[in-house]
Design brief:
calcium-dependent phospholipid binding; Annexin_sf; mainly alpha; elongated; about 350 residues; calcium
């Protein structure tokens, strides 16, 4: 039974442990769970020259481009961009855009953005064009820290000349808009010192606003779930189990619907086990006819220096096969290779 099936059934054990065996809710030096590590022999000018050669090679040398971009950290890639501009007088992003194509191009260009720029780009993309990609909005705004949200908002304003909130108000409405705007504030309480009394009272408020009441007071669910940090939310979920025979996630699915349900359920899943949440998103992106390549690229790139190791582990645990196996089945060519390199060389 997968992690979230257990969560929906109300079988909630203690907070999942990290790979060190220590309780992941305890404060300690943070282990590194990314799959991309700094190149110890890094030389920005040398890499810039290698990229120039790969771009100018007849037919383009995608292998060389992959080996550089996917095996350098984001900080190192920013130095390569600067060196390329200085040494050639050209913009690396434009140079690559002129010779690459399709999903491989999307990955390469995503790797050249800073994390904040990439989040801003993906949020803009989710709201512009035909149809709104609500799940992408929920994924980004529902899983980033307060600091990350502040940085992506600055990047959004720098890139597009307007506030992120302005775009949300122009594209979203109702309670869903209220929830997203609350997350945009980037003011969730991230204090690791848990308040048992507050958890108990807010669990009661959620119970009375939903399960105990005919109809649902959406504003109560929005306020509590968008203002509390992950650790405090988990404490609330535990308290809720004392009031109800149903797990909180399952109650949320009964009480809410549509985009608001998905938004708040994102907060619940990410609070309890963020790597499992991303593993589920990746699985759904490759399930059925036609892969959701935007989601696949976004998660692999954005989590490659955060927690992709743990996502790979959760994926194997939840679905009985590795993420790499599904990538091999759903992608091909240079696009497939660059995703696999980003997933790391280790067997999972």
């Amino acid at each position: 039974m997968s992690f979230f099936q257990k969560l929906f059934k109300g079988i909630i054990d203690d907070k999942p442990k990290d790979n060190s065996g220590k309780d992941s809710s305890k404060g300690s030096s943070t282990p590194y769970y990314g799959t991309v590590r700094p190149d110890p022999n890094f030389n920005a000018s040398r890499d810039a020259a290698a990229l120039q050669k790969a771009i100018e090679t007849k037919g383009v040398d995608e292998n060389a481009i992959t080996e550089i971009l996917a095996r350098r950290t984001n900080a190192q890639r920013q130095e390569i961009k600067a060196a390329f501009q200085q040494d050639t007088g050209k913009d690396l992003v434009k140079a690559l855009s002129s010779v690459l194509k399709s999903n491989y191009e999307h990955v390469a260009l995503a790797l050249l953005m800073t994390p904040a720029q990439y989040d801003a780009h993906e949020l803009r993309h989710a709201m512009k064009g035909l149809g709104t990609k609500e799940k992408a909005l929920n994924e980004i705004l529902g899983t980033r820290s307060n600091q990350e949200i502040a940085k992506l908002k600055t990047a959004f304003k720098d890139a597009y000349g307007e506030e992120l909130e302005h775009d949300i108000r122009g594209d979203i409405s109702g309670h869903f808009e209220t929830a997203l705007l609350a997350l945009c504030k980037g003011t969730r309480n991230e204090d690791r010192d848990l308040d048992d009394g507050l958890a108990k009272s807010e669990a009661k408020s959620l119970y009375e606003a939903g399960e105990k009441k005919l109809g649902t007071v959406d504003s109560v669910f929005i306020h509590i779930l968008t203002s509390r940090g992950d650790a405090q939310l988990c404490k609330i979920f535990k308290q809720y189990e004392k009031l109800s025979s149903e797990g909180f996630a399952k109650v949320l699915m009964h009480e809410l619907s549509g985009d608001l349900e998905d938004c708040l359920l994102t907060l619940v899943k990410a609070a309890w086990n963020k790597p499992a949440y991303f593993a589920e998103r990746l699985h759904l992106a490759m399930k059925g006819l036609g892969a959701d390549h935007n989601t696949l690229i976004r998660i692999v790139v954005s989590r490659s220096e955060v927690d992709l190791q743990k996502i790979l582990q959760e994926y194997k645990r939840m679905y009985g096969k590795t993420l790499q196996q599904d990538i091999l089945a759903e992608t091909k060519g240079d696009y497939e290779k660059i995703l696999l390199v980003l997933c790391g060389d280790q067997k999972v």
